[in-house]
Design a protein that fits this description.
It comes from Campylobacter showae RM3277. Pfam families: Fer4 (PF00037), Fer4_7 (PF12838). The protein is of the alpha+beta class. The chain has ten helices and six strands. The chain has two domains: about 110 residues, no CATH class; about 110 residues. Helices cover about 30% and strands about 10% of the residues. Strands 1-2 form a two-stranded antiparallel sheet. Strand 4 and strand 5 form a beta hairpin. The longest helix is centred in the first third of the chain and has 21 residues. It is globular and about 50 Å long.
């Protein structure tokens, strides 16, 4: 197949996927699942399930929903408890999207609106309990297969936190302290989500107690001021 035919075939597939997605009945998947950065409001309609975003993600954060999700089968999502989105430079997932499901106007972190973090069960938070990070809480992250230097840097940061006060959710947040910071609660440290949180999910991934969730496609005010 020559280059011209390949481009025509790709364009045809994108158009067909868009047409099918536009007319088929929709689900609530965009409310239930965390989508890659730059996801538009009608993401589920526009995603042609090509998997290009999955292939280019350097952190292996993006997966595809399986057949159990019905219509949404094959659309891309992020399971933050497995691997959050590190909001890497140039957003390769966005650039790779051929259908417009990921908005190509997403060029910087402030453009991202994936959702917002939510802390549950503060009594289990190591920082709140004034406990250090121990191997039991991070074994899964340390045993995960590593493919590149970026993933290795995350693993090293987690490894270096052992026997130190836990602040992984704050120290590894790719957005910074405008998104999450340690605050005092009853005289003890506790992570607090702030207006700048974009719902990337890194905090949920690296929390040893696994007490952080991401509310997909929700804004800060909806959760904390609603």
């Amino acid at each position: 197949m020559n280059r011209r035919n390949f481009i025509a075939l790709t364009a045809g597939a994108a158009a067909a996927g868009y047409g099918i997605g536009y007319f088929l009945p929709k689900t609530r998947a965009d409310e239930l699942f965390l989508r890659p950065p730059g996801a538009v409001k009608n993401f589920e309609s526009l995603c042609i399930k090509c998997g290009q975003c999955v292939q280019v993600c350097p952190y292996h954060s993006i997966g595809l929903l399986d057949i159990a999700q019905g219509y949404s089968n094959g659309t891309s999502y992020i399971d933050a408890h497995e691997r959050g989105c590190y909001l890497c430079d140039l957003f390769p997932c966005v650039l790779a999207c051929p259908s417009g499901a990921l908005d190509h106007a997403t060029t910087q972190i402030s453009d991202v609106k994936m959702g917002v973090g939510v802390l549950r069960g503060r009594e289990a938070c190591l920082a709140y309990k004034n406990e250090n990070v121990n191997l039991n809480g991070i074994t899964k992250m340390l045993e995960r297969k590593i493919y590149n230097d970026r993933e290795q840097a995350v693993k090293d940061a987690v490894q270096n936190s052992v026997d130190k006060p836990c602040d992984l959710c704050v120290s590894l947040c790719p957005v910074g302290d405008v998104a999450i910071a340690m605050a005092k609660s009853d005289g003890r440290n506790l992570p607090e989500f702030k207006q700048g949180c974009v719902g990337c999910g890194v905090c949920a991934e690296v929390c040893p107690a696994q007490i952080i969730d991401i509310a997909p496609n929700r804004g800060y005010d909806e959760i904390y001021k609603g």
